[in-house]
Design a protein that fits this description.
It is built from 8 helices and 7 strands. It is an alpha/beta fold.
Length: about 270
């Protein structure tokens, strides 16, 4: 697809990857409707871009996402691209993570994507022209990690529901394309506050390691977003901007399952 003059909606647009996508999409001439829970940061982002509005939205709230879709279809000539991008991290021993944190992970990481699909797909079908939905999972959506079970479980769910969505839209011959975005490490705010309940020393060490790994090897959101939009221009389903963070791990995992070997987490 080409981008100039086309309309995009981005959730989680006030920070990190969503912000990078908003800036890169604006650079390529897109008209933007930006959504986030953080109203103040979102408004600042929208004001700094040439053709963008802020629609403060909690993606866990279906009525709010429905309003977002209504505003987007009114404001943009068409919604050509939807990024279901908002997501949160939760770390800890899974039986110690507070229930509200578990619930929030399910509600944002899975429920938020599903609400985006429920609100936008019927309107896209009615509009009847080409569009693309990009759901953000993670390389962690292909490889479970201890000490971040809510994240692993919800990102696996996003990988699964995105493929189901692709199948269903193809089945009804809809003009809506689908992509699964699997970021590796990207510098963002996602690890700012990933704890709740007891923080076992193992969790603290794990999070410290991840933070320093992202600091050292993570991409900045804007070059990352450039790779994402290039992949969308090509029409890719699998958007994996950092293949080095996925492919070796995927190969090991497939071999482990084929060999019926015990899961092992050597890096812990
Ligand atoms: N940064 C990474 O290394 C990395 C790696 C793999 C996947 N991801 C995924 O990328 C996506 C973006 O994460 P990020 O790293 O940019 O994190 P981030 O914390 O910098 O940005 C996430 C944004 O989502 C917003 N948000 C949170 N809950 C929301 C809700 N209920 N409704 C609306 N907005 C909400 C936050 O306010 C924030 O602005 C997430 O889905 C994340 O899981 C990130």
């Amino acid at each position: 697809m080409t981008f100039e003059g086309k309309g995009a909606v981005i959730t989680g647009a006030a920070s990190g990857i969503g912000l990078g996508l908003a800036r890169e999409a604006a650079k390529r001439g897109m008209r933007l409707v930006l959504a986030d829970l953080d109203r103040q940061a979102l408004e600042q982002v929208a004001q700094a871009l040439p053709d963008a509005i802020a629609v403060p939205t909690d993606v866990t709230d279906m009525a709010a996402v429905d309003r977002l879709a209504a505003v987007a279809f009114e404001r943009l000539e068409s919604v050509d691209l939807l990024f279901n991008n908002a997501g949160i991290m939760a770390t800890g021993l899974m039986w110690e993570i507070e229930p509200r944190r578990w619930d929030a992970s399910l509600a944002v990481n899975v429920g938020g994507v599903l609400n985006g699909i429920r609100a936008f797909v019927p309107r896209m079908l009615k509009a009847g022209h080409a569009a693309r939905i990009v759901n953000t999972a993670s390389v962690g959506g292909f490889n479970p990690a201890p000490l971040m079970a809510p994240y692993s479980a919800t990102k696996f769910a996003v990988v699964a529901l995105t493929e189901s969505l692709k199948g269903e839209l193809d089945m009804i011959e809809a003009p809506i394309a689908v992509s699964l975005l699997a970021p590796g490490p990207v510098r963002s705010a996602i690890f700012d506050d990933p704890f709740s309940g007891e923080v076992h020393p193992a969790t603290q060490g794990f999070v410290d390691n991840l933070r320093s790994m992202i600091g050292e090897h993570g991409m900045d959101p804007e070059p990352f977003a450039e790779r994402v939009l290039d992949a969308i221009a090509r029409g890719d389903y699998w958007i994996v901007p950092q293949p080095e963070a996925l492919d070796p791990m995927l190969e090991r995992r497939h071999k482990m399952i084929a060999d019926r070997a015990q899961p092992a987490f050597g890096y812990l």
